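Exercise 3.2. Students should predict the tertiary structure of the chain below and write it as structure tokens, then compare their answer with the key that follows.

Predict this chain's 3D structure.
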Amino acid sequence: MKMDKIKDLLREYEKKFGKESLFVAEELRTSKEEVISTGILSLDLALGIGGLPVGKIYEIYGQESSGKTTLSLIIASQFQKHGKTVAFLDAENSFDVSWAETLGIDTKSFFVADVDSLEDAFKKIEFFMKNGVDFVILDSIAAPPTVSQVNADFTDSMMGVKARVISMALSKLMPIIRKSKSSLLFVNQIREKMVAYGNPEVTPGGRALKFFASIRMSTRKKLIEDEDEIFVGDEITVKIEKNKFAPPMKKAKFLLYYDGFYTIDYVDLLTKLDLITKSGAWYVENFTGNNMRFHGKQKILEEIKQNPDFKKLVDQIITQKINSLNIVEDASSEDDGEE
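Answer key:
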């Protein structure tokens, strides 16, 4: 098609449908999509683009108490740091203000809403997005009943009713998300189906969310013990199950302590990248030029926690090394196989 015909087509399309709904693909090449860090370096690297793209649907799912809500709040705190407004729909009635503050949430500009039904949740999501809220979290999409379930008896069979509501609601929300550039995060649970082989775990709510979500992440946890064999936190493994922006199926690990401090496993990552060497109980770094020595893994984590400049340098060195070697998957997380 000649250039004059392209211009005529664009002009006629703009008259009929509006200016912002049609682009020549070449124009999109130069437009940089906004990406917000998750606040966890290993997860940013596993996502392949440095974080979460704005204006999309994400899903975090996993077993009970596997860090789903905590991860969503950590991500929300990063959106706030970028000047975004956040709303949290507390369908599980489990929101803890103190824990949210510990994770970095500015509670003075953080909206929290109750949910009475699944339809009520989607109506509130629509309201928030149409009124300028940049990031909406529903925790969780599996928790609220539909209106028909509320009015039904406990023994009534309501197969597929949630899936129908979710499918219709997501179809209705997509044009709103596209225009408002709001981001939507669904926290989901898992169920187990009775099968003789294969993975028995499934997420409730049908298949619609699997299609509409641009990024899907699953979580698993393993307890962390200190030197006295006392449990002090969890090692959270996040697997990128679906990713429309980079190769999926990568894993990232971070350490979440019960006092709210979270960090990646710097020692494991620095060792894989040959940025530190171990001799007995001692670790020696080789990237600052000072050959700093640390007695035990905990001393390295303490230095990173207490020295922001050192942490910033370590993050920069890790990112540069991984990008130069093009081994994001192997360096940012250890693949332990299917769990």
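Discussion points: The chain has two domains: 34-264, 265-339. Confidence is low (pLDDT under 50) at residues 327-334.
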